[in-house]
Amino acid sequence: MTAANAQAFAESWPTRPIRAIIPFGPGSAVDVVPRIVFEQMARQLGQPIVVENRAGAGGTLGSSLVAKADPDGYTMLVHSAAHAITPALYPNLNYSVERDFVTVGAIGSVPNIMIMSPSKGFKTVQEYVAASKAKPGSATYASLGVGSAVQMSAERFRMSAGFDAVMVPFKGGAEGITEVMAGRVDFYFCPIATALPHVKEGRLLGLAVSSPRRAEALPEIPTTLESGYPDSDYTFWMGVFMPAKTPPDIVAKFHQEMVKALDAPAVKEKLKTLGVESMPLSPAQFDAQVKREIGTYSVFAKAAGMTVN
Predict the structure, then answer these.
(1) Is residue 2 predicted with pLDDT exceeding 90?
(2) pLDDT tens for residues 150-171?
(3) Considering the entire predicted model, what is its pTM?
(4) Does residue 113 contact residue 221 with C-beta atoms inside 8 Å?
(5) Alpha-carbon gap, residue 190 to 207, rounded angstroms
(6) Nearest to 283 by CA among 254, 243, 247
(7) Contacts with 177 (C-beta within 8 Å, 6 or more apart), sequence order
(8) Residues 207 and 115: beta-carbon distance below 8 Å
């Protein structure tokens, strides 16, 4: 395709429905949040954006489909920060996270909050860490699997704080919250939107957030960094990627329309209720962040002994 043809193709794009692959099951933040944005974008673009959940193999199944799709702008991947740790956990992937995708843009980030049952009797995160160190091997935390955002938040915090904890995996976040609320599992770094009503009504205690800055939804709760644990932060972002060699003009057009949709008042209000915070990055800036995280989490995964069975 010549440069002139590519530009003409991008100007007329899209002329048919766009397929958005989400490599996780329905109901998660990575599923709910993009649907809100895509609904607005579909109106702007004049074509539907059809979301397909292709869960399996830690998100690699859906990612592989997009990596091998035609680079024509009609297939995209919606992924989370877990995308950046995939190479460390799956060394024999049939695709390259860095080479087989072009970064389109960030949808936003969701702070993860460390929640615990008030029945545990701890008032601060420092009290819990001290108690866990005093009884080695007694600590437990809820997770949605190795490499998930909630596990990464817990492991980043645990490694920095210097105590051992057993990961208790669950298929869904609701099950994890139930077990933490009952006191059968100590803590859970839960997406803030899910935890918010329970914290506000006192059923759960929020001890810290893993984001670099305090959460807008619960500004009174400190970050893990503020609590005295360096390198404990974890940014749970959501973003859009397309197959490598997708025409740059299409990537730029989709990014511009996504920024426009994210700025729509109705979309902003819906995302605010879910605790989603903006990430106003250009595709190049977001791409640089993803590549930095790939390097950072490769080292971290080895240090934490994170492996996929």
Answers:
(1) no
(2) 999 999 999 999 999 999 998 8
(3) 0.90
(4) yes
(5) 11
(6) 254
(7) 115, 142, 188, 190, 194, 195, 198, 204
(8) yes
